[in-house]
Amino acid sequence: MNRFFLSCQACLVVCLLIWPPSSTQAEEGASRSEVYKNVARLAAVGDKLFHDPRLSASGVLSCASCHSEKAAFAPDNALSVQYGGVDMAQRGHRAVPSLKYLQNVPQFTEHFFDSEDEADESIDNGPTGGLTWDGRANTQAEQAVIPLLAFFEMGQQAPQDVVRRALSAGYGEALKALGPYLQTTDLFQVITKALEAYQQDWRRFYPYSSKYDAYLAGKTVLTPREHKGLELFEDPEKGNCASCHKSQPGNDGTPPQFTDYGMIAVGVPRNRALPFNQNPKVFDLGLCGPDRTDLKQYAEYCGLFRTPSLRNVATRQTFFHNGFYHSLRDAVAFYVLRDTHPERIYPVGKDGRILKYDDLPKQYQENINMDPPFGPQPGNRPVLSDDEIDAIVAFLKTLTDGYSDTQKRSDATP
Ligand code: HEC
Ligand code: HEC
Fold first, then answer.
1. CA 339 / ligand 1 centre spacing (Å)
2. Which of 71, 108, 290, 325 is geometrically suited to a Cys-Cys bond with 76, CB 3.0 to 4.6 A?
3. What is the CATH number of the domain that holds 154?
4. Ligand 2 surroundings by CB, under 6 angstroms
5. What residues make up the domain containing 235?
6. pTM higher than 0.90 for the full model?
7. How many folded domains does the chain comprise?
């Protein structure tokens, strides 16, 4: 039996199954297109709300002020943390993450079993997933409530204030029209769902248009330097970066997300420039608080933050949860110098001792990850040479979206 016959036969079975269309299928088709229309409407309102400063108490700050599309939905400045609040003089204590490639972040769980290892339930990857650096929001709608109401961000007192602002800005009709589709009359809910729908537009938020994606698709080659960087990134004895920042497609063909969504303590130095850190007794402990409040009593979670995707990381001007680093090279060098040359990473105390892991109280320091590239003792040779760090940085630059668009455009121009 040849392949043509086989596919023909398969087609016949399918054709008989779907033809003639029954009235219920026709109805389903109609309601499906109705759903698409509603989702598109919701996303269009979300797009406007996302860019509208009138929703904030100051009247000048929108989601897009901190999450700028031209900077992969992260800030287009190099501040460690951004200004906000009713007077635009307040600052939080966390760097603004990119909003790209969040579509696969799993809901937060304390025990994550990788679906690819399903057969072996014994591999528990520990706390994983959830939105924000500490995973405390499970959906983008839930997350949107946080900046709208945070006193140091958009600064509204209560959901009704946000709704009132949206109504006076002329969104009333659009929001009310979407209520029935979302089965709610609560306009605040419609607002947060619209912001969520906007962030699910793949063309903007997960286009997979980087040079590395083109390389995986066999449409381009990496330079020898980029290729060397990729090898070092994946080599368990060298960068070992890919053990957390996954660089290969999943078994089901999902493009690599450059994160396994795991919660890890890497021991980033304390950012002493943050107002939040002026009090030496105050610490941002990630999973165990203070922003997140449900896991306070778990000492083993203190210092853990979610592994971010490294897609578009070269467009960032601020790195890690507290924005301590401002160059990608320094952020990469941190990994290999942290334990071999702590004097180049951490400050020195009054007694001349190096204040290693200075953003985590002593009793939690055993939570800090010690796997390669971390680990070797002070004085040992770092696992990556200066030249190898540069090669990894060159590779990370291939993760910036827009490469295949540029390719297409330059192919089109004679
Ligand atoms: C003043 C700056 C600022 C504004 C305005 C702002 N954000 Fe953020 N955003 C942040 C910071 C900082 C974080 C990290 C928060 C944390 O980890 O607790 C964040 C995190 C997020 C995340 C989670 C990202 C991830 O990696 O899990 C989403 C989604 C998000 N913001 C969407 C929005 C939306 C929608 C708005 C508007 C309603 C908005 N943000 C307004 C600063 C801002
Ligand atoms: C054990 C897991 C793990 C390994 C291995 C690892 N990372 Fe990370 N990476 C993380 C976590 C967790 C964070 C966020 C930590 C924080 O902010 O406190 C992070 C953050 C980063 C950031 C900052 C991104 C941003 O948006 O601010 C960069 C850059 C980075 N990693 C690059 C690398 C490179 C390069 C390697 C290999 C040399 C590597 N990582 C190895 C878990 C890991």
1. 32
2. 71
3. 1.10.760.10
4. 239-241, 243-245, 264, 266, 268, 305, 307-308, 310, 313, 316, 319-321, 328, 331-332, 335, 369, 371, 373, 392
5. 211-406
6. yes
7. 2
Cβ distance 391 to 397 under 8 Å?
no
Domain contains 135: no
Distance 49 CA to ligand 2 centre (A): 32
Ligand 1 atom 6 nearest Cα: 63
CA distance 116 to 364: 31
Residue 119 within any structural domain of the chain: no
What are the pLDDT digits (tens) for 107-145? 999 999 876 555 555 689 999 999 999 999 999 999 999
Helix axes 224-234, 386-396, angle to 10 degrees: 100
- Domain check: are 231 and 306 in the same one? yes
Backbone angles phi, psi at 236, to 5 degrees: -60, -25
Could you tell which of 320, 332, 339 is best to mutate to test the pocket of ligand 2, judged by most ligand atoms within 8 Å of the CB? 320
Compute the distance from residue 84 Cα to the ligand 2 centre, in Å.
27
Do 159 and 228 fall within a single domain?
A: no
CB distance 330 to 396 below 8 Å: no
66-119 residue pLDDT tens:
999 999 999 999 999 999 999 999 999 999 999 999 999 999 999 998 765 555
Do 238 and 319 lie in a common domain? yes
Give domain status of residue 197, yes or no.
yes
Strand partners, 134: none
239 in the same domain as 166: no
The token pair that represents 164 in the structure block: 């009132």
